[in-house]
Sequence to fold (99 residues):
Amino acid sequence: MTYAYASNNKVQDLSANPIVVFQTTNTSVQLKKIARQPDGHWTVQYYSGAWRTFGTTTNGVTTKELLPNSYSFSMTYAFASNTKQQDIGANPTVRIPNS
Fold:
């Protein structure tokens, strides 16, 4: 299955169960609050073959449904960015510190 530029594969005996289920994960990217955090909206992208739009934070958080894979996430504000790689199948909450 391909969804949001990512794919997952399953092996299943269709004679035992003819319904193949793929599940997305509600992924949350959060700006970790530290000193000197600027106000404003951060632009978030994720990498799946190329950098893709994830969303813009509101109160430091944005969410999107993705397949449970490992992705790189990038958060940008005022020409500065931070990047983090995470397996959202293991933990769908991505916390990125700003510098």
